[in-house]
Design brief:
Helix content is about 35%, strand content about 20%. The protein is α/β, with parallel strands linked by helices. The two termini are about 15 Å apart.
Length: about 280
């Protein structure tokens, strides 16, 4: 299956106006973390925190709904999020930890859980929320998009970043400027070109905007834990849902992009293998 194994696919969004005001799409990541914290399912979470003045993501441990909301929004440069896991479990003393991760980071987490020498940290991970990711950009690439391609004086002028409708978007003074995705090719992190996972197949819950209308997110519940938390948040009225077959463009677009990444990057992996270059071991 190009989307990996999952139990249910729905289109969803948070019902909390505070979350929707700062969220990238439907605010599902923030809504789930806030619910899990409030219910004691997790004691804190490791996230890509609020960027500093040049949009560089900062690995952050959050332990309250206010901190979750403060860290909301997608960052398009790699955050070394997993580096904060030791801080969460040792400095903060958390026994039940949530993590928001990209597909590659999610695989790393599952591998850590599988190997006993990481048990003192990995066995405290209780919820993994994966975010859809086609590719990620070094900070220098984001600077190039802003200044050389979109005419900004500085990347710091942007108040929001987004990818959708075939473009990379930067928002300045309430106005959106778009750069065609094809113009971003070649600027991504080198490792992104051999990643086969678009939809965080190993997460408890995966989410992203593709397949759902503006302001909504497509959610794939994958594990029993993920399904339980998501349904509980829905039952509590914190998240509203629609069946995927009632929204456009629906799952076909998500499946198309997931397959496209596997096909394209599979060819790159084969090319590198023939050259004798090392490749990551799939989980």
């Amino acid at each position: 299956m190009v989307l990996g194994t999952y139990k249910e696919a729905v289109s969803a969004r948070s019902t909390d106006s505070k979350i929707l005001d700062v969220s990238q799409d439907g605010g599902i990541v923030s809504a789930l973390l806030c619910y899990a914290l409030d219910e004691g399912i997790i004691e804190g979470a490791v996230v890509a925190g609020t960027p500093d003045e040049d949009w560089r993501p900062i690995p952050t441990v959050v332990t309250s709904a206010d901190e979750v909301i403060a860290a909301a929004g997608t960052k398009y440069s790699m955050s070394p999020t997993l580096s904060a896991l030791k801080e969460a479990t040792r400095q903060y003393g958390l026994e039940k930890v949530g993590v928001v991760s990209t597909p590659c980071q999610t695989q790393g987490l599952r591998k850590a859980q599988a190997y006993p020498f990481t048990r003192f940290v990995a066995d405290k991970i209780k919820l993994i929320i994966g975010i859809y990711c086609m590719e990620n950009f070094p900070m220098a690439s984001l600077d190039t998009f802003a200044t050389a391609k979109l005419g900004f004086d500085s990347l710091q002028d942007a108040s929001k970043m987004d990818i959708g409708k075939g473009k990379f978007w930067l928002t300045k003074d309430g106005e959106d400027s778009g750069l065609a995705i094809k113009e971003t090719h070649g600027y991504e992190q080198a490792g992104c070109n051999i990643c086969m996972d678009y939809v965080a197949e190993w997460a408890d819950v995966s989410t992203g905007s593709v397949g759902s209308p503006d302001g909504w997110s497509t959610v794939l519940t994958r594990t029993g834990d993920g399904e339980t938390v998501f349904k509980a948040a829905v039952d509590a009225g914190l998240i509203e849902t629609k069946p995927m077959d009632e929204v456009k463009p629906g799952l076909p677009l998500l499946e198309k992009l997931a397959k496209g990444k596997k096909d394209k990057n599979g060819k790159e992996r084969d090319k590198r293998a023939k050259m004798g270059l090392p490749l990551p071991v799939e989980y």
